[in-house]
Structure formats: C-alpha cells, structure tokens
Amino acid sequence: QVQLVESGGGVVQTGTSLRLSCEASKFTFSSYAMHWVRQAPGKGLEWVATISFDGNDQKYADSVKGRFTISRDNSKNTLYLQMNSLRPEDRGIYHCIKSSHCVGDDCYPGWFGPWGQGTLVTVSS
Amino acid sequence: EIVLTQSPATLSLSPGERATLSCRASQSVSRYLAWYQQKPGQTPRLLIYDASDRATGIPARFSGSGSGTDFTLTISSLEPEDFAVYFCQQRRSWPLTFGGGTEVEIK
Lengths: 125, 107
Hints:
The complex is a heterodimer of chains A (about 120) and B (about 110).
Chain A: E1 3-7, E2 10-13, E3 18-25, E4 34-39, E5 45-51, E6 58-60, E7 68-73, E8 78-83, E9 92-100, E10 111-115, E11 119-124
Parallel strand pairs in A: 2-11
Antiparallel strand pairs in A: 1-3, 3-8, 4-5, 4-9, 5-6, 7-8, 9-10, 9-11
Chain B: E1 4-7, E2 10-13, E3 19-25, E4 33-38, E5 45-49, E6 53-54, E7 62-67, E8 70-75, E9 85-90, E10 97-98, E11 102-106
Parallel strand pairs in B: 2-11
Antiparallel strand pairs in B: 1-3, 3-8, 4-5, 4-9, 5-6, 7-8, 9-10, 9-11
C-alpha cells in the first residue's frame, strides 16, 4: 500500500521560509507525477503545485507562483516544497499526493490518488 | 481559471435515501472531472474520476455522470459511513481547481 509521509511543517513568522518533505514508499516513485494540495483548517481544498515524474516540468497555483518551488529527488523517493515569503493565508495542512488512475502522459497531472496525512503550516503575522 | 460551483452546500438526508450532488464548471472540462470524499479527521479519498469511473475499491452505490459543464455524483442509498463532505475537481486545464464542497449530513 502506498505510503506518503510529510514533514517539515511548523509555526513561522510572515516573510520567512519552510521546506516541506514527503517520503514516498511502496510504489515506483520515479514513475509518477506528484502534487501538493493544501487545506486551511475547516476549509476547502486548494491545489498548490504539481511536478512531472522526472522533475522536468512544474506547475503552480497563482497564489504561490514565484514564492514556492516544488522539486523531487527520485534517488531518495522524496518530494519537496520550498516555501518562501510565507504569508498568513498560506496556513493549512499540506498534503503530498501521488498521481493515479491514469496512463502514460495522462498522468501529468492524472488524478489525486493516495494522500499523505499532511503537515501543518502556521504563519503568524 | 475554471471555477467549480457545487450545490447544495449542505444536504440533509437519512440513511437509505438517495443523494444527488451537483458540480457546475464555468467552462467545459470535457470529462476531466473527479469526486472526492472527506470524512472528519481524514484525508480526501478519490471516489470517481473521468466523470463516471469508480476508483479502486469504491462501492457501486456511488456513481458519477455528466460532461462539459454539468456533473452529478449520486449515492443510490446512503450508508452511515457516507455522511461526509464531497468535493469535485477538474484537470481539464491548469490551474487545477476544486469545488467548494457539499456536506452530506444526517437528517
């Protein structure tokens, strides 16, 4: 069964940085696009970023473009989200997600398959 | 950006009843629409993808329909474990977007 374990969240001040990590296991990590989706407490879902299986292409929500960078290390089966210039509205649980229910090129982005439990980011003003 | 509007915001039903949830897109998403279920304290789970295909392990009482801009998630007979929040999501174009959710609550 796919396992995705996020880490790196915490309480930080406005304007500072955090780097989230997601360790993946029990699937061939290097074969799948990966995503970050966030959810503010008690709120809806917001897509943040997606990276292709080989790391050569990335897409971002407008709300984070220029501040956040998604990356991956396929040799370590790990996905990252570098978050700079954090704002109070970036607060939420950040979930790492594997692309699923798709074939080939359709898997970029594919669908949001197994979700990690998430890591909480809180930004104080 | 494609905006997804879900209705109603809350659906109050009893176990055994049929639930019909709607998701309307601001422009055509073809059939690139999915539905997710989120129970309290849990992560979302993919139910339906490509508008009408059930994800692995999803019971047959869940069905999806629609194409273009209008989509429906139907739960044929509500089980106690189906009371949750449901989100639709499109991947027709970037940015990927979600609807605001429909809560199915026990009447």
